[in-house]
Structure formats: C-alpha cells, structure tokens
Specification:
By secondary structure, the chain is of the alpha+beta class. The chain is about 50% helix and about 15% strand.
Length: about 190
C-alpha cells in the first residue's frame, strides 16, 4: 500500500475503535479527546501498517509528518501555526509544553480525522440561519478564530443573517491589537535582557 492507502486504512481502523473522551472542560461544559485517549491506538495501528509519525514545532509552526516506513520517500505533512498560551501560574517551559501538547493533539486529530463536537457547539451564543450556535465574543486566540471561521463558513447559508462576518472581522482586529500589544511588551523586555 502507498502512504495514502495506509493513512486511509489507519483512519478507518481508528474510527472503528470507539474511542472515549477523558478530557473535560468544566467551564464550557464539554468533553474532548486528550492525547492519551488516542495515541496508544494510533501507535498500534501505525506499527501494524508500517507508518511512522514525527511531531515538531519550529519557527511558530507545528508539523506532523507521517512516513511510509516501507517507502520512506512517501510522506504526508500536516502543519498549523502556533499561538502563544497565557496560563496563569505557569512557567515559560510549561507554556511551551502546553503549546506542544495542544498542537500535537490538533494535528493528530486533523491527520486521522478524529471527530469531536466543536467547542463552539457547546458555547452559548447567537444562532446562524441554520440554528447552529457560535460565540464570536468568546474567541481568545487564533486557533479559536480559525475554528469559528471554518464552522461559520461550513454552516451558514448564502441567504439569511450574515452579520457574523462583520463581528468576526471586528474580533480579528481586536485579537490583532492584543497580539501587537503583547509583541511590543515582549520586544521591550527582550531589549533590556
């Protein structure tokens, strides 16, 4: 099998395993997959199919490479930009660890098409023309912004209320202002270090 056939087979096998979510967001009231919920199964399936995966973060980009061990020139690469994490009471290294954990989780979920309800579904917010809910005001980072945008594009009709577009652009500008403020603060601290 080539890399694409193997990856498709891995997805099918994993989806047939009836994975359980152990993560729980008590604040927003939803469950989610943690790495421990699927990585052991992924490793088992990849071993059987002779696939190798490697995760890394470099220059603000997370990368998950999946390689056909029988033909190493065959590989599929999944990437995503990273974002800063602001966790109260954490050291810098713990923040880096959080970024790695989140990005690894999201890239594996993307690569293996692990499906879970979007956190947006669990949030209270306005309804779009299909009656689905979203919470633009609750967006706090670029990953949430991207997820909201994808959700709204996929679930909005071309007719009806499209006020979300303006609200999303306003949120984008707001996040950009926060990013610029944090960047400027970082630049000042770096200059004195």
């Amino acid at each position: 099998m080539n890399i694409y056939e193997k990856l498709s087979e891995a997805r099918i096998r994993l989806q047939g395993m009836n994975l359980k979510k152990s993560g729980r967001n008590k604040f927003a009231g939803f469950s989610y997959y943690e790495l421990a919920d699927f990585i052991p199964s992924v490793n088992q399936i990849f071993g059987e199919l002779k696939l190798y995966s490697m995760f890394s973060v470099k220059d603000g980009e997370a990368v998950l490479s999946i390689v056909n061990s029988e033909s190493p020139e065959e590989h599929v690469i999944f990437t995503s930009p990273t974002a800063a994490v602001d966790l109260k009471g954490c050291t810098a290294i713990q923040g880096i660890g959080a970024i790695h954990t989140y990005m690894k989780r999201y890239l594996y979920m993307n690569a293996l098409e692990i499906v879970e309800h979007d956190a947006l579904d669990a949030q209270v917010g306005a309804s779009n023309s299909k009656g689905l809910t979203y919470n633009i005001d609750g967006i706090q980072n670029v990953a949430q912004l991207n997820s909201t945008y994808k959700f709204l594009i996929e679930n909005s009709s071309s007719k009806g209320d499209n006020s979300w577009k303006k609200r999303l652009m306003d949120k984008c500008e707001s996040l950009n202002a926060v990013f610029n403020k944090e960047y400027n603060r970082f630049e000042k601290v770096s200059a004195t270090a």
